[in-house]
Every structure is written in structure tokens, then in C-alpha cells.
Amino acid sequence: MFRLFGIAVIGLGLNSAMVWLLAEILGVDPTLAKILAVFPVFAWNYLGRRTIVFDGTPSTARHCSPDVYGANPNAGAMRSERSYPR
User: Fold this and answer.
1) Residues in CB range of 49: below 8 A, 6 or more apart
2) Closest by alpha carbon to 40, among 1, 4, 5, 10?
3) Where in the chain are the domains?
4) How far from 65 is each of 58, 71, 74, CA to CA, in Å?
5) Half-sphere exposure of 77 (CA within 13 A, CB side)
6) Please, are residues 73 and 58 in contact by the beta-carbon 8 Å criterion?
7) 3-state secondary structure string, the chain?
8) Are the C-beta atoms of residues 11 and 48 closer than 8 Å to each other?
9) pTM for the complete prediction?
10) Which tens digit of pLDDT belongs to each residue from 60-84?
11) Is the pLDDT confidence value at 27 over 90?
């Protein structure tokens, strides 16, 4: 949870810094500066979450439920959709 929050806070700071740099320092129109700031911030958010937050380690929920690994083929089905032996 803290990793996800950290990525979001850094993304917010990066967005603010990019808009400030483009609008105030380089003199770009503020609306255009906001549009241009979307691209590096989107890349940061995607790559940061992919590499830092969802780094491939299984969560504790996967360790608790053997159904996640396919032990029970009816695990994801609703009760009415499950096939019961007759």
C-alpha cells in the first residue's frame, strides 16, 4: 500500500513540476503545458506501478487460497454455476 501511495505522490510532484517548468520557465501556454505533462507522468505511473508495486511477488491472498492456482476449477464461478456431483 505504501509503495502505491509513494508512486502516486511522486507522480503528482512530477506533474506539478512539469507544468511549472513548461508554463512558468519556458513560457508555454498553461493548457498546453498540462497536456504535455500528461505523457511523462503517465509513463512514470505505469512503469512505477509495474516495476515497484506489482513486481511479480505473490500477495498473501494467493498464499491463503489454493483455488487461485486452479486446484478447484469451479472456484471463480458463482454458487449457482458450480457443477456439483450428482
Assistant:
1) 4, 7
2) 10
3) 2-58
4) 12, 9, 13
5) 10
6) no
7) CHHHHHHHHHHHHHHHHHHHHHHHHCCCCHHHHHHHHHHHHHHHHHHHHHHHHCCCCCCHHHHHCHHHHCCCCCCCCCHHHCCCCC
8) yes
9) 0.62
10) 655 455 555 555 655 555 555 555 5
11) yes
Contacts of 4 (CB under 8 A, 6+ apart): 49, 53
CB 53 within 8 A of CB 44: no
Q: Return the amino acid letter for 27.
A: G
> Grid coordinates standing for 76?
471463480
Which grid cell sits at 38? 500528461
CA-to-CA distance for 60 and 75, rounded, in angstroms?
A: 18
